[in-house]
Give the backbone structure.
Amino acid sequence: MPALGFGTSQLGDCAELVATALKLGYRHIDTAGKYGSEQGVGEGLRASGVPREEIFLCTKVSHEFLRAGDFARKVDESLKTLQVDYVDMLHVHWPTIDNIPLAETMGALAKAKREGKTRHIGVANFNIALMEEAISTCPEPLATLQAEYHPYLDQTKVLDYCRKHDLIFTAYCPLARGRMFSDPVLAEIANTKGRTIAQVAMRWLMQQNVAALPRSSSPERIAQNLRVFDFELSDDEMKKIFALKQPDGRIANPAGRAPVWD
Ligand SMILES: NC(=O)c1ccc[n+]([C@@H]2O[C@H](COP(=O)([O-])OP(=O)(O)OC[C@H]3O[C@@H](n4cnc5c(N)ncnc54)[C@H](OP(=O)(O)O)[C@@H]3O)[C@@H](O)[C@H]2O)c1
């Protein structure tokens, strides 16, 4: 899985942006049934001219559809909307809010993999207890956790858990949806490096072996966010960024849907 993916939530009709991202060199695209971007993603994939097998495509099934039958139907709908035969990663988007047994959802997730509709499977927005249950009930191995992560949010416990269980941690909201662009510590590091704050924040994730999904509606910023593999942050700079964590740094915390976070 390429460490850097292009995020497509809130982009709506994103065909042109997805094609741009692929032409610029992105090889990982993140979408979800919930985003309304699957059609645009599919169109962008085809318009880019990049062969399908070179692209790592991720989609997700939303929390309303976690019964086995609903789940299978939503996977088929996603493939149809994207106009692809398979995705590379399929996620459960959020844990259930309706007391649906997790084993049932994990069975449906594994079935999608066994039927060749996805190459890999994962979960998003699960806490450690839910991941424990998911791993023990899923008939196929889970490959990733997708969860919020950026300099303002401490994810030490979850990262440790993922590392111990061989799960790739994929950071969503890696740019804190724009909230850290006036941060003086990040600005100072960015100035020293001759980089932007977005690039420094992305590099901080890369140096932790965390994958990331920056979203942008601007071709210049899409290109900028990709240029994070040709410089390095020192241990001291990494520490300064770790120190920016805030107790209320979490952005995606929908009432009634979010689990008790670790
Ligand atoms: N699994 C989940 O539950 C979940 C939840 C949230 C997100 N996600 C995934 O993660 C992706 C990223 O998260 P996100 O979209 O919430 O937020 P994000 O990537 O943290 O931030 C996006 C914001 O940053 C701005 N931006 C991007 N690059 C910039 C740059 N170089 N300089 C200045 N501003 C820049 C964008 O504005 P411009 O458009 O003006 O550049 C946009 O307002 C999503 O698109 C989605 O694919 C998953």
